[in-house]
Amino acid sequence: MVWTDAQGRALTDHPRPSVAVDVAVLTVLDGGLRLLVVDGPFGRALPGTFLHPGERLADAAARALRDKAGVGDLAFHQLGLYDDPARDDRGWVLSMAHGSASPSHSLPPTAELVEIVDDRSALPLAFDHDDMVTAAVHDLRARYADDADPDALLGDRFTLLELRRVHEAIVGRPLPKDTFRRRMLTHIEGTGELVTADAGRPAELFRRIRAHPDA
Amino acid sequence: MVWTDAQGRALTDHPRPSVAVDVAVLTVLDGGLRLLVVDGPFGRALPGTFLHPGERLADAAARALRDKAGVGDLAFHQLGLYDDPARDDRGWVLSMAHGSASPSHSLPPTAELVEIVDDRSALPLAFDHDDMVTAAVHDLRARYADDADPDALLGDRFTLLELRRVHEAIVGRPLPKDTFRRRMLTHIEGTGELVTADAGRPAELFRRIRAHPDA
DNA sequence: CTAATAGTGTCTCTGAGACACTATTTG
DNA sequence: CAAATAGTGTCTCAGAGACACTATTAG
User: Are residues A141 and A164 in the same domain?
Assistant: First the structure.
């Protein structure tokens, strides 16, 4: 049996698009957001690849990160499918944009990180990757608005100052320390441990609390 | 010049997936959420279609709604790309799920509307369409949480009772009328007009306010 | 001691929820 | 008049922001 679409054409008669995945990996460095980019024949671009036959999108995205940028084990999620037929000169290519956030020390030292300015890459990217980056930044901001550190940009344990620096980089403005502390205390819990910096009173180390208590 | 991927294969050598679009159209009827479904060879399913060569996803989704369900002129947005290689027995088919909301009176009288119970279709759907519906319901709820009527489920003018009924259907629980009124007054503005129902004091008609004042 | 950083007490403002009240219509 | 629906006054509670205060370290 051959399945046909509404126009009576067999499925296999349809020219099909190539499907790609691209991943916008964001990180926090020097108090600001940065984006992982790779250089290729089209200039600076997000790490990406074409979907292999039968492959899952998540697997393709992980493969792109590994092969193009040398990073592994990142969590990411879908942002949107970019579908302008003219978005790629090579032909009809749809690309599923993914967003990810990861601590800068987990990226290879050779990784090229460009600044995020005004929710965009400071250096222009190939294809429609600039739009993907803006979507990734907005998505990151939305997910950090109501949680402490959902993407584990910090390690298991962290001080409230470290957590606040991460949030400030993501929202792009300074946050009041007292309000921030009280707001976060519903999402994190103190270990008894103290850690001392160069000067001043030692800070307590906190850890994330599992899930939302209302879920 | 022939572009190749990281494995050195030419792009055109890749077997490519079929790409489909599916649309979860939600509406409010009799105080509850309903879903527009169509009957096909696989049973009840969301209206959908295969992407035609060079076509935009939005155009394909609009075409599916027109051809499969007889509805036009709906706004929708992307929910996610469903990519399980085994999701469709006919072969390798990726499907971009879209969500939409539209007033029930704008749907054809013959449209089949199934109830939404517990964020799912009361009747099971083909493929992975049940998952798409749940995503659409959550998306709808998120977008109505901070706005009056972003998808224009009501007409230009409406009473606060009508608006509250819509929100109650979407969040799935009754809402207190006084709090709801005060919360909505930042998103809507009163016309001077009054409208009288069967009994009781006439209600004022309101309209949506353009955009968020903080944007 | 001072400088520096961590953390708290408290006031104000705003918004949600609860509850009772007033206002305006039909019959 | 009673019934029904629209809309308001007001109290309480919770959370955000502002500001000043206390606490604990290094030197």
Answer: no
SS3 percent helix, strand, coil of chain B, rounded to 5, is 25, 30, 40
Identify the residue whose Cα has the smallest distance to the C1' of D27: A199
Length of chain B: 215
Q: Which domain holds residue A44?
A: 17-145
User: HSE on the CB side for B146, CA within 13 Å?
Assistant: 5
**Which residue matches tokens 């020097």?**
A30
Alpha helices in chain B (DSSP H): 57-69, 129-145, 160-171, 177-184
Q: Near strand C (CB < 7 A), which residues?
A: A 159-161, 177-178, 181, 197-204; B 175-176, 178-180, 182-183, 186, 194, 196, 198-202
Look up the CATH number of the domain holding residue B20.
Answer: 3.90.79.10
Over chain A (215 residues), what is each successive 10-residue block's mean pLDDT?
Answer: 48 81 97 97 97 97 97 94 96 97 95 97 98 98 96 97 98 97 97 91 94 44
